[in-house]
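Bump. Still looking for Lysosome-associated membrane glycoprotein 2 structure tokens.
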Amino acid sequence: MVYFRPSWLSGSGLLLLCLVLGADQSHALEYNLTDSSNATCLYAKWQMNFTVTYETTNKTYKTVNISDLSNVTYEGSTCGDDQNGPRVAVQFGSGFSWIVNFTKHAPNYLIDTISFSYNIHNHTTFPDAEHKGIITIDNHVALKVPLNDIFRCNSLITIEKNNVTQHIWNILVQAFVQNGTVSTKEYLCDEDKHSTTVAPINHTTVPSPTPTPTPKENPYVGNYSVRDGNSTCLLATMGLQLNISQDKVSSVININPNSTGVTGSCHPQTAQLRLNSSNIKYLDFVFAVKNENRFYLKEVNVSLNLANGSVFSIANNNLSYWDAPLGSSYMCHKEQTVSVSRTFQINTFELRVQPFNVMEGKYSTAQDCSADDDNFLVPIAVGAALAGVLILVLLAYFIGLKRHHAGYEQF
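Sorry for the wait, here they are.
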């Protein structure tokens, strides 16, 4: 299924492109395509990653996040000719390809089709896959851009079809470049004009939103788990409260674990917990291993329907929360805030997570968060201060008593 933004459909037929996930490897790609005279005919810069759900041999489903854009090549890219339009063809990772075709319909050009191919025979990326071979997903986009304009879309864009979700953002592209000079005149996507859907923000520290959402009662604490075959590979216990600021309107959503679906996936270096409900399309927590001996929350992705009927989507793949040694769990009884962006935060309550090395479906020894440690330090500090005062009082008493006895001896 390809998701369209209604306002784009009216008149222009523009597609709601989308983006998401990523990792350290999801850096911006930039490609300057030249013709036989070495003049630029097409320029493109963008970020992207993908989510693929596939069936396993035991008839369960796994979800894989593809954000490693290493070993990128552009074989098959072309400026086009009288019969065929320009094309950007990107190959990356282990058997992945992504192709965008452009066509000219004066006074516009079209971002016409987007195709994504992956080799499900790759056991490293798709362990225990039921089906084998190369799968190609074609999406008709037909996004119109005036000729001689460069198209810009920083906002989150999502294309979903046949168990594949494509995430694209920070787009800057111009096909049919005239005289080898990329235009400075920008044509903005509707999402950037109206800011209904927000692009991923790749910053670890994010300011608090303004205005602050109205306080709401604490959410129920839920127990969530992900299985890999017959064993549990990820455990999470937490109360979740979503805080959203959009168009100067703040929303607070408490997640009810009793009406929340749970899926996910586990791999040696990454693990994903995905939650969904009637109004939450997905809420992803993606964990990663660092330095081969610790894990942390690296990524959060969300797409949900707001009360006003709009869709709110955002992603951040450069987080650094819930850090703990491998083989242990991370625990924090006190309320914590995960700042995903200026417009989206998650408050957690009674948090405990273990995304790796789960043994017999049980949590391992917990590492407490700094917030809990601070709360232990407060009574210790107060007790130490009181003990100090008591010692001073006793010293003063004994000194006074000694002087008193010395006064009697003089008689």
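The longest helix spans residues 370-409.

Edit: fixed formatting.
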